[in-house]
Each structure stands twice: as C-alpha cells, then as structure tokens.
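Table S2 (continued). Query chain:
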Amino acid sequence: MPFLPMVRSLICQAPRASCQLRKMIIAGGSDTTPTTLTWAISLLLNNPHVLRRAQDELATKVGRDRHIDESDIHRLVYLQAIVKETLRLYPAAPLIPREFNKDCIIGGYYTLSGTRLMVNLHKIFRDPQIWEDPLEFKPERFLTTHKDVDIKGNHFELIPFGAGRRMCPGASFALKVVHLALASVLHAFELSTPSDAPVDMSERFGLTSMKAEPLEVLIAPTLP
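Corresponding output:
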C-alpha cells in the first residue's frame, strides 16, 4: 500500500494514534528541509562563483520579468546539481539505522538477527575512493563525472534519503520544496554576509546535521 493511503487508514482505524502520526509526519520534514536549505545557502555564500553561475542560469532560463514557478525546475540543471552536492557534503540525516530481521553474513562477519546497524552516510559521501576532491564544493561533478547519479536510492554512493523499502517516504516532496525554495531565493535576491565574512561551516551533530553557528545573511531584492 502507498505510504499516504496507509497512514490515512491507520488514522481512521486508531483515532487516538492520529495525533502521534501527524507529529511523526510533520517532524520528519520540519528539521531536514530547512537544514538542507541553510547548508546550501552557506555553501553558496562561501563559493561566490557557484552562486553567480546559479543566478546566471536563472536569469537565462526564467528571466527577470516574473517569479519562478515549479514548472521551471526541470530546466535548472545547475541548481539541481547544487542541491545534490549540498546533500552529499551535509546530509540532513548523517546516520541511517537498520535492523536485521534474520541472521546473515556481511563482509565476512556473521550478524545475528536483531542486530542494529548505523549506516554512516557522512563518511560514505566524503569517501575519496568514490569522490574526487571529496571535501570540495563542486556541483559541476553532477554534470560531468557523476551526471548519472541520482538521489532516489538507486546509487549507493549518494543516498541522502536512504534506499529500498525503508527510504524516506517524503523524499520527492522534500526535493521539490528545496529546489523551489532555493531557486526562488537566488532568483529574487542578492545574498551576502555581514562584512563579507566567510560563513562558519562547523557542524553540530545529532539526529540531523545542523550548523553549529546560526547563519547570518544579508538579502537585497532584485526583481521588480
């Protein structure tokens, strides 16, 4: 059964649990989506050449006489590459838990049923055996060497939403929100930092990987 119909049926069957289900669904996206947007803007502020290229793409593909629409996103390939690179460097959920439902052997190690495993996405996404210059912010890698890598669970070198039957059910919606929100900000505003200081990229780890210091950004409208 698809995720949303399943949740709806559970709410109908157990009214007392509906409040908990609503909280679970809302909480799943209330931290991760704004966290990804914050990291993306921080990376762009520290890499002005990438920011300018993204704004040039928006000016060319969308123009300056209207606001951006969701239907524009599929043509903004560089913007999509920026989001992929942001999720690679700063996955909102750096660890993915899994539990074995049967005994098995993985990498030569015998693993008992019930064993819980934490998949370290933060490490995988920065593995130099997979990524060239893994600590560098290079969105263009997703237009060249890794152009066929998606983030929908099909390529295990980049699975910010997980993979398989247990991957994030809100992945498609989250991507639409991040793409549209980031494109809207870059299209309508010029961004800068106070005194043109670089953004502190220190991380504060938890269930979500957030900035240790709040992002301070100055915005100036550019659209009429």
